[in-house]
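Protein Record: Sequence and Backbone Structure Tokens
======================================================
Scope: a single protein chain, as residues and as a discrete description of its fold.
Tokens: labelled as protein backbone structure tokens, with as many entries as the chain has residues.
Position: the record begins directly beneath this header, with no further notes in between.
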Amino acid sequence: MKENRVLSINTIMLRDQYVWNMNVFSNYSLYISPVTIDHEGFYQCVNGYEIATEHILVVQVPPRIVMSINGSEYNTSTQDKTLYVWTGKEVFVSCKASGAKPAANLTILINNKRLNPSQADTVILVRNIKENRTFDSVVDMKIRLPERIGNIICASSGQDGIPGQEVTVHYQNISFDLFLTLNGQQSDDVIYVDDKDEILAECYAEEIMLSIVKVAPKVRLMINGHDCKNGTLITSQHEVIGAICHAIGARPDVQLKWSVNDEFIEGTNNVYNRRGSNMTKDFITTLSIRPKENKGDITCHVKGHPAGNTYLRAEYRINGEQLYTL
């Protein structure tokens, strides 16, 4: 060394670009900042003709973890996104650690469970000296995702002081349901039309989210334009009562049914209205009746509610004189 500067490393005279960030102090300690993989090797401090100290420097490099699923890449900054997968279709998953030293030990987990080694093929590629002597590790696999929703994890285990890393992608299986409408009516039964009438037939492919994540809908009941809650009394001067029941923001689908005075009404109009936010659906059903009695109750039943079957009920009274609510 000369004036605290390192002149050679591994018996090779250093070029100027390596000298500027290396210093030797009077206690024979060597200071390097910043450290790169090019600094790896055998260090010997010689003072005159005596060897003062010797060291071997091993440089470790953490990997860059990337997971690709069906060609789309995810890393530690883009994880925790939801991947939608066709039900029953295989997905191609590639878990890669690049630029690591030592070579990263990779694992693919499905729903937090480690895959059987027979389900994956591991390949370790060694880079040459021009690529800084680091390693790339790759695990590839094809699999049908077993659950309706879950996660796929590409993980590198920690080793030799390098912390482990992982990339997580949440998945959800989807499929389509086909249904047919004739003249705007959806039915699995026979629809009768007049002879020689034109029929408008429409076929729909409705996306179904096969999800175990349930969302309770907000249920609303209206009778003759009045917003009702359980126990509301509607008094009407009209003999015909019109009722509307909404279930807003449901997942999975719910079924709406009517009952009048505890008797269920068959053949009521139960219509899927539109898709709501967060992959939920809104439903609406309507009812128009001429009550047999001057007082009673109308109930909207919500079947398939995440909290269990529920209902909204309102009492009615027909007095033939005035309309008011209590």
